[in-house]
Amino acid sequence: MDLTQMRYAVEIAQCGSISKAAKKLYMGQPNLSKALRELEEELGRPLFRRTAQGIEPTRAGEEFLVYARKILSQVESLKALYQPQGQTEVQLSLCVPRASYVASAFCQWAQGHANGHFRLQYREANASDTIQTVFTGDAQLGIVRYHTERADYFEGLAAAKGLHLAPLWDFHMVALMHKSHPLAPIADISPSRLAEYPEVLHGDITATSPEDVSPTAQDSQSGSHILVYDRAAQFDVLRSVRGSFMWVSPMPAEVLEREQLVQRPCSSGWVYRDAAIWRGHLPDAASGFLDTVHEKINALMQV
């Protein structure tokens, strides 16, 4: 039994539903159900029972929740005891893909929450580095991006390391290019139409399993590549190198306008998934940031 299991039980009781609690905790319902089942097996008795309205604590569950809430409250009091008086430091460490909508969400969240004393860390990395960074505790929250056909591998890898994984959305990659690109007027661009143009790639996208190859290596017919590690530099290349393009997740309109870029859908393109990963209890700051990420995703899906 640990603090995370106690927090799960308290959240389930507050929500009156495992599915609602899982959504609030940014967990998959099967994972939360499994955690509850393991806790009940350890205690030797059920903590909740199903009703027509959802679930409610059993008598044993009510007793457990009294102690769990008291322990969690004491833990928070202990943390506050060693916090400098009058100072509440906001801490958030992230490891995410090079995605403009995620960066935009971070800036929006920081603007509203990073008041007073704060320590924020924002790092962009590939999926394998992100998983390792979250596993070692160097980041409180990660967002990993992977091809949906590789979902079993990446989600299995996260589970093997004891990490929680919650899918955020599935999306078609879009072709990003300067507004003066010869193919910019085309509404739906196929990969073959881009074969003669130089493709800009993230320089550190490496295979994490024998089956995991980049979409460019697997499907693209483009013969020229420009490897760039910095997202801002990629925008510079797209503006400066005639005909250059890159495959990205859907972009916020304000970023496209600011960088003088356009995105063009590819209905025959690859489908990718962005998923949040974390270890143990998700801190309030990380949970709030994920709420902002969801807002950005909802806005992009309505375009």
* Anisotropy-based shape: elongated
Strand order of the largest sheet: 4-3-5-12-6
User: Compute the gyration radius: what is it?
Assistant: 22 Å
User: What percent of the residues sit in helical stretches (DSSP H or I)?
Assistant: 40-55%
Can you count the helices?
11
Q: What characterizes the major β-sheet?
A: 5 strands, mixed
By CATH, the topology of the largest domain is D-Maltodextrin-Binding Protein, domain 2
What is the number of beta strands? 12
| CATH architectural name of the largest domain | 3-Layer(aba) Sandwich
Mean pLDDT: 85
Protein name: LysR family transcriptional regulator
Keywords: DNA-binding, Transcription, Transcription regulation
Domain HTH lysR-type: 1-58
Family: Belongs to the LysR transcriptional regulatory family.
Protein traits:
five-stranded mixed sheet, single chain, D-Maltodextrin-Binding Protein, domain 2, Arc Repressor Mutant, subunit A, WH-like_DNA-bd_sf, alpha/beta, 303 residues, 11 helices
Strands, helices and their partners?
Layout: H1 3-15, H2 18-24, H3 29-43, E1 48-51, E2 54-57, H4 59-81, E3 90-96, H5 100-113, E4 118-124, H6 127-135, E5 141-147, H7 151-160, E6 164-172, E7 174-178, E8 199-202, H8 215-219, E9 225-228, H9 231-240, E10 245-248, H10 253-259, E11 261-265, E12 271-278, H11 284-301
Parallel strand pairs: 3-4, 3-5, 8-9
Antiparallel strand pairs: 1-2, 5-12, 6-12, 7-10, 7-11
Helix pairs in contact: 1-2, 1-4, 2-3, 5-11
